[in-house]
């Protein structure tokens, strides 16, 4: 695929995805080399969003395979439409003219395409998102090797199907388990960390441009402090940052205060234990003092 890196950077920016040089270079190399892009990092740092942005950049379909424990080949690749096959058999038995053979029953007319096969059989280049691959087992990873290496799949009844257009493949992992070396070798690797204060401020300005400068800056400082200093079960992600800014605006707050922080804690934290931990370790007063101190520097 002929892709210009500067064009890619501009497209990401146009889609509101704030990224640095290393990220855009890694994505660019995965596209040029036509290799899968394996993105790791904590939940909510923007891994899945990259696949969505790529589908919009190239004006193509996003095909998503959401992984889960127990996901098998049939659910990911294809299944036969047994009800339709049975109905066809019944109609054939009631007809004296029609002779039904196995090739007819196991043809494309009776094939239920799942995400992997949809991406391979597509007439145009599409984006295939294999989301949270770390939730599957090693057997499923091994099955993916053929797909990711040669972009082809084998169907016993139909033979080997090779991709007409190699899809753009994005895999994400939250790090719940170690992925196999075989999978890693087939991919270009990208790690995304929580954003710096400066980058989070850019994200807020991009997603919620109507927010005031002071409010946006204080929220970025507060979120950075919470992630770094408070022990939590679930660290708040970028989505919580955006939700918090919007919640504060709904309350007509143009700056943070101990009272407004206390009123909106449950927008930031998604677990009652984390609310308690925040109150014990820092609290609204402590967070407010930190933000004010940083803002005055």
Write a structural description.
- The chain has 297 residues and is an alpha/beta fold.
- Helix content is 52%, strand content 13%.
- The protein contains 16 helices and nine strands.
- The chain has a five-stranded parallel beta sheet, with helices on both faces. Strands 3-4 form a two-stranded antiparallel sheet. It has a two-stranded antiparallel ribbon with strand order 6-7.
- The radius of gyration is 24 Å and the shape is elongated.
Task: Provide the descriptors you would attach to this structure in a database record.
five-stranded parallel β-sheet; 297 residues; 16 helices; two-stranded antiparallel sheet; Rossmann fold
Give the topology.
Layout: H1 5-14, H2 21-33, E1 37-40, H3 47-57, E2 62-66, H4 73-76, E3 78-80, H5 82-93, H6 102-105, E4 111-113, H7 115-121, E5 127-131, H8 138-150, E6 152-155, E7 159-162, E8 168-173, H9 181-185, E9 188-191, H10 197-207, H11 213-229, H12 238-250, H13 258-263, H14 265-268, H15 272-281, H16 283-296
Parallel strand pairs: 1-8, 1-9, 2-5, 5-8
Antiparallel strand pairs: 3-4, 6-7
Helix pairs in contact: 10-11, 10-12, 11-16
């Amino acid at each position: 695929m002929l892709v210009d890196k500067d064009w890619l950077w501009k497209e990401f920016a146009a889609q509101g995805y704030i990224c640095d040089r290393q990220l855009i270079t890694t994505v660019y190399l995965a596209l040029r080399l036509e290799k899968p892009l394996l993105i790791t990092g904590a939940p909510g740092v923007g891994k899945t969003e990259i696949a969505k942005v790529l589908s919009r950049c190239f004006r193509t379909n996003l095909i998503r395979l959401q992984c889960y424990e127990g996901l098998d080949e049939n659910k990911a690749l294809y299944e036969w439409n047994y009800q339709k096959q049975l109905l066809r058999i019944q109609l054939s038995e009631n007809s004296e003219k029609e002779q039904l053979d196995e090739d007819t029953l196991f043809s494309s007319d009776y094939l239920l395409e799942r995400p992997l096969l949809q991406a391979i059989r597509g007439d145009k280049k599409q984006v295939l998102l294999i989301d949270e691959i770390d939730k599957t087992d090693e057997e499923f990873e091994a099955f993916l090797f053929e797909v990711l290496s040669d972009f082809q799949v084998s169907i016993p009844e139909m033979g080997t199907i090779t991709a007409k257009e190699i899809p753009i493949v994005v895999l994400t992992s939250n790090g719940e388990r170690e992925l196999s070396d075989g999978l890693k070798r087939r991919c270009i690797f990208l790690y995304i960390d929580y954003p710096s204060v400066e980058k989070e401020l850019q994200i807020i300005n991009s997603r919620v441009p109507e927010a005031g400068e002071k409010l946006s800056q204080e929220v970025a400082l507060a979120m950075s402090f919470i992630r770094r200093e408070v022990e939590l079960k679930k660290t708040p992600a970028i989505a919580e940052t955006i939700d918090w800014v919007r919640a504060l605006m709904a309350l007509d707050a143009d700056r943070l205060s101990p009272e407004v922080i206390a009123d909106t804690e449950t927008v930031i934290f998604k677990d009652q234990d984390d609310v308690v931990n925040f109150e014990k370790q820092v609290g609204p007063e402590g967070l407010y003092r930190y933000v004010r101190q940083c803002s005055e520097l």
